[in-house]
């Protein structure tokens, strides 16, 4: 993930189409968001996730991963197709297959997916030094020495560290994170997100993601699939992007001005015509979220790679059904129609 200078945020249109959250349904609850004991999940003998009850760190009442009117929770199933949809899909790869870049176990000896370290109250803050200090939130960050690193301790990739502080209802996110012997950390960049608010980062600022967005917000989680519903957009990558970003993104990561390339923050959805009825349970829940809430372009990477949590409760055989989808099954939508304020993630209600 490389950064470059950012361009202006897209101007909003005063139109109310689709909307944020779902009628009568709450936003997803943070892990440990209910008083202990709280819901967790397990995999049965057929690879299905089933709800269980186990103790976990409790979070304040109403602590969700962003409010229900946040753009991540926007239903985009009725938004109009973006005028540049065909060009953007072609640039990502019309025949390229979708890939769930998450699951259980190891790939080539390393875990895959983005791990989330969940904390309750009492974790001490530690110093983090940043390569991109001018675009990173100052610490201290409550990151324990045992925090999990994307790809494992010896990884040479993006090395995200995502800490979900359920007591403070905040997410602490690092890119290219490396622990030091004294308990401090070094990272390329870092961001802190108050999960009770719709704040966006300063225009032009990166985060732990190239688009300047929260990584945690875009990750499908095993407990969501166990509940049968993901109520938010999913983070994904594309091989080439434009030197531009659109709301709600805050940062670009390209030197190309080719209009055929999608900007950071572009929103796509799985077409309504795609039949997912025969998908196995876990893949079907993810695919339904892609139809209803879509996917947000958040970083440069392999085509149609959809991020999710690293979790042994996933069933890789079921998730692999998503690989049957190709670029032609997706379309870009005009997410600007949801914008209320270019500097806020709050979006229009239906």
Q: Encode the helix/strand succession as letters.
A: EEEEHEEEEEEEEEEHEEHEEHE
Assembly type: single chain
Main beta-sheet annotation: 6 strands, mixed
Beta-strand percent range: 15-25%
Structural class given helices, strands, pairing? mainly beta
Residue ranges: pLDDT <50 for 5 or more in a row? Answer: 1-17, 22-59
User: What is the CA-based Rg, rounded?
Assistant: 19 Å
Mean pLDDT: 86
Protein name: Lipoprotein
Signal peptide: 1-23
Biased composition (Low complexity): 26-42, 50-60
Keywords: Signal
Descriptive notes:
With 350 residues, this protein is mainly β. Helices cover 9% and strands 23% of the residues. It has a six-stranded mixed sheet. It is globular.
